[in-house]
Amino acid sequence: MENVLRPVIVVGGAVVLTVLIGWATDLLLRKADERHSETPLWGLLRRARVPYQLVLCAALLRGSYDQAELLQEHRVGIGRALTLVLIGSAAWLVVRIAAAVVETSYSRYARAHRDPARLRRVRTQVSLIMRVVSAVVGVVAVASMLLTFPAMRAAGASLLASAGILGIVAGVAAQSTLANMFAGLQIAFGDMVRLGDTVVVDGEWGTVEEITLTFLTVRTWDERRITMPVSYFTSKPFENWSRGTPQMTGIVFWHLDHSAPVEAMREKLRDLLRECPAWDGRDYSLAVTDSTPNTLQVRALVTAKDADDVWTVRVTVREQMIRWLCAEHPYALPRVNTADAVLPPGGIPSPDGAPRRAHEPPRTGRG
Questions:
Q1: Beta strand extents in 151-214 (DSSP E only)
Q2: Domains of the chain by range and CATH?
Q3: 145 in Cβ contact with 138 (< 8 Å)
Q4: Per-residue pLDDT band at 184 (split at 50, 70, 90)
Q5: 297: burial class by Cβ within 10 Å (0-12, 13-18, 19+)?
Q6: Residues of 320-341 as b/e, b for ≥16 C-beta within 10 angstroms?
Q7: Which CA distances in Å does 286 have to 250, 263, 298, 312?
Q8: Rounded to 5 degrees, what angle do the CA atoms 112, 114, 120 make?
Q9: d(C-alpha 239, C-alpha 200), whole Å
Q10: Residue 352: its pLDDT value, please?
Q11: pLDDT of residue 4
């Protein structure tokens, strides 16, 4: 009977003690969160209660499982399993605590600074730092788990002896991966591109949605996702419309007849922009930039506070200007000219120098 009750008491006591300590810790964190609402640290730390309870339970069982005589036959295996759970849950707890600290630091920085560009840069750096921390903790945890096996400890000497050769081979095999990792760090701390930036890559316009150590994702205007290695942004030119100030100047073209009322179009452009909420009021202009035998090329310049608004202004001005021309000045629209040409004074000279009238067939010199 004692052999049955002892394991139950050991395991049950560890579980009950874990639940009680976890409940008390969560209660203290909740009260601290209510008392210090200006910082999200205590609320974020509450997200670590699951790995915290796993660490407590694994540590208690690891220290007392040998008291359960019923499990003496599997003592080594159980001890190793509890050690693996303890190492894994401890790594999980460290990552959660680091995430809470980093997120709290970013929140304080965001409250102190209102510059969107600077906040996007810091957010990018924070995201990559958390990925690096998670990767390092994961590697250390896996290495610690492997070292719990005697065979791995015995092979440690040979592994260290061949570390130089393996490092060279791994470096050659993972050359592109390492290049992308260093490129990711260069992007994060070199302020080349940030989360939320509006970029144009390979002719595609979109917003940077995700940056990792190896790849970057751009969400296009039609909700497609373009994923590319981060080394692309350190080796090839690209457009970043969010660098500096997000203000932009947009261009609108029309191809019109030579008789188009350019001055009236300038006045109409001013009226249209005053009624467009997306126009930032900085500047506008309208000019004839080119001409062909059949049309004029009229260009309007408009300004807006960012890329989204400048697109709205461009399409609004283009649509309403054409509607106004159709209603008020239809002659200004491009058309094919089928009227007879106006002859110069004296008519068109014939090959022999004598003038001829319109529609008169050319002289052949016979008869």
A1: 198-201, 204-211
A2: 2-112 (no CATH), 177-240 (2.30.30.60), 248-332 (3.30.70.100)
A3: no
A4: low
A5: middle
A6: bbeebbeeebeebeeeeeeeee
A7: 12, 9, 7, 18
A8: 105
A9: 5
A10: 57
A11: 59
Structure tokens that stand for 206 in this block: 């979109």
Residue type, 352: D
How big is the CA angle at 340 (ends 334 and 342), to the nearest 5 degrees?
100
Q: What is the pLDDT of residue 300?
A: 93
Q: Say if residues 53 and 14 touch (Cβ distance below 8 Å).
A: no
Is 21 within 8 Å of 56 (Cβ atoms)? yes
Name the DSSP class of 203. T
Specify the pLDDT at position 122: 77
Rounded to a whole number of angstroms, the distance between the first and last alpha carbons of the chain is 141
Q: What is the pLDDT of residues 242-296, one digit of tens each?
A: 776 778 889 999 999 888 899 999 999 999 999 999 998 888 999 999 988 888 9
Q: Give the amino acid at 328.
A: E
What confidence tens digit (pLDDT) does each residue in 129-161 have? 788 788 888 888 887 887 777 766 655 445 444
pLDDT (tens digit, 9 = 90+) per residue, 328-359? 998 888 877 666 656 666 655 555 555 545 44
Task: Classify strands 348-349 and 204-211 as parallel, antiparallel or unpaired.
Answer: unpaired
Complete DSSP assignment for 289-328: EEE-SS-EEEEEEEEESSHHHHHHHHHHHHHHHHHHHHHH
Q: pTM to 2 decimals?
A: 0.47
Backbone phi and psi for residue 124, each to the nearest 5 degrees, phi listed first? -65, -45
Name the residue among 276, 285, 206 with its Cα closest to residue 240.
206
Tracing tokens 């849950």 back to the chain, one arrives at 89
205's tokens: 């316009």
